Amino acid sequence: MRLSKPRVEPLDLASADPETREQLAKLAGGDLGSGRVLNIFATLAHHPELMRRWLVFGNHVLAKSTLPARERELAILRVGYRCKSEYEWGQHVLIARRCGISDVEIAGIAAGPDAPGWSAADAAVLRAADELHEDQMIGDATWAELSKSWSRQQLMDLVFAIGQYHLVAMALNTLGVQRDPGVPGLP
After folding, report:
1. Does residue 51 carry a pLDDT above 90?
2. 12: nearest Cα among 36, 43, 53
3. Distance between CA atoms of 128 and 75, rounded to whole angstroms?
4. Which residues, at least 6 apart from 158, have a Cβ–Cβ distance to it below 8 Å?
5. What is the per-residue pLDDT for 102?
6. How is 139-159 classified by DSSP, letter by letter?
7. What's the longest Cα–Cα distance across the chain?
8. Angle at CA 137, nearest 5°, toward 76 and 165?
9. Could you tell me the pLDDT band of residue 80, with boundaries at 50, 70 and 90?
10. Is 12 strand, coil or helix?
11. How far apart are CA 131 and CA 127, in angstroms?
12. Is the alpha carbon torsion for 84, 20, 54, 77 positive or negative?
């Protein structure tokens, strides 16, 4: 089930307290007048303390973890697809393209780890997302495949990235956060 309208409307930025406006300005590139606040942030702005604390972890997962950007985006897109999170999928299609993931590969993410064309390593990333989604743990065979080229920290970051984006998908879907202009929907 997808909500066609928000359960929680994005916050009218004029009604945000000064500290929240400052945080939103940073997320909009420094200026609320010229930048665009994404719907996820304008929605979370209804709960400034939650947003502030969640952003610390979200920033680690998205920008400071040990995962290579390409593999991180493969995992996030697979989570977005499996969770039927149109917002998450669409935002990360844009990010994935900036990380060099082709539209053919993006289409293959929806098809899953057994689709033709994936390397063993890429299939393992997609399979890890599926296994965590279905079983709440990565199976031994997938763990062994990932361990061939990833450090312990990278393996841990993968689990937390997939978990983080499951949480985000649940929030986006439940709150009814609508896609921002120009963001693609699910395939």
Report:
1. yes
2. 43
3. 8
4. 67, 71, 75, 125, 128, 146, 150
5. 97
6. -HHHHHHHHTT--HHHHHHHH
7. 52
8. 25
9. very high
10. coil
11. 6
12. positive
